[in-house]
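To assess whether the prediction recovers the assembly geometry, we first specified each molecular entity separately, as shown.
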Amino acid sequence: MDSLTAATAESFRLLFSGDAALWIIIFTSFSVSVRAILIAAPFAFVVAFLMAHLRYPGRRTMIAGFSALQSIPAVVVGLTVYLVFSRSGPLGDLKLLFTQSTMVIGQMLLSFPLLVALSHAAFQAADRRVWETSITLGAKPYRAFLTLIYEIRFGLIAAFIAGFGRIIAEVGCSMMVGGNILGYTRNIPTAIALETTKGEFAQAIALGMVLLAMALLLNGMLSFFQGRGVMTS
Amino acid sequence: MKRFFANLIAFLLLAPPLAFAAEQPLIRMATTTSTENSGLFTVIQPAFEQALGIKVHVIAVGTGKALELGRRGDVDVVLVHAKPAEEAFVAAGDGVARHEIMYNDFIIVGPADDPAGVSGMQDAASAFAKIAAAAAPVVSRGDDSGTHKKELALWRQAGIEPDGPWYRQVGQGMGKTLQIAGEMNAYTLVDRGTWLAYRANSPLKLLVAGGADLKNTYGIIAVNPQKFSDVDYASVQRLIDWFTSAEAQALIAGYRVDGEQLFYPVSSQ
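The predicted structure of the complete assembly is given in tokenized form:
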């Protein structure tokens, strides 16, 4: 019990004394996940819009497909990205394995189905007349699209937050394709895994608290936006 | 507009972390969990990065995985401890040459009450035979690491196929395996470096040490540049030269945990 108290006390000291090693890890985590979600989200929103707006054969299968892929295990994405970007793999010449770029790619792939499925639900619930009215009033399709996006912004923000929540806490993929390199690809989840195996619980607890605070904040925001979404429709 | 978005995506994907914006050679080294978990790299990495002006990305995995990363060209150099596997790696043309840099020894640790009665033995294979006969719990790395390879060799030497509920393969690094063995009150084979680093928090006791079959040698091998043309062989060779230099050997010899030496440089042999 003593060691637990001591480790917790030490973890607070690390957090609030501006321990550089700790903050680099936190910065890496956010830098990678923010980049991944910023790239993935616009594409996901366009795909979701097309699925909700157009009529084409295989549409329902596609929707079911993205829905099913939401639960794809992170380690499977990690293994796939590893094999593709390994020096002996098809894209090995890019020399991207064990860089932040492959972590970004892995996290994009992880968050993409979730972003599509959740934003598709938002587009589905939108009023088709928003689109039709905009077009009738002479708006170009991309302007009409932006108007539609604005109308369902709470649903899309909720999808964005849920996607971010999925990747910021993910350990399997980051460990495999990032390699847990100190000061470069070591993020919060992989650092917690490592520090725990080393018995350095203070740093693991400090990082765990950051991640937990983050998760609670995101989920709080999520329910807030979901609540607003229902009331405006 | 299209160009702007293409550039934005490229930037988000490739933006280098600010700290490493400076132009300097970057090489990737795969090494074992024992060298990293024992804390040795926290001392020697800043030393060689400064001495050579080379940035080194260290990826700590088991010896088997480290050699596989080298074989696939995912790293430029490996620092591992499993002599037969390393010699095979070089013989197959995956690596250039094996340079020994340091050694320590494996030991067997186990529960303080020592149900198999192996305390004080030196010969590891006989100790394993006794533990198996008592069906006392054993935790194995089970991850194709250098320590795991050594453990399997010792079982073969003892003429025993470890099997049964007393034998658990955990598939984890050395530190984690020691923790699990501690929780389960089990015997396990461990390198002395990791043991010294973890001993303060472990309920286990050192029981078997000193046998000729327990020596643990670490070697460094450059990945074959003829196989992967973009390996920065010149920088790798400078790194290998540094490891065998007097400066590095003194640093390795000087690394202490709780006043105990963890690794012995080959120059001291």
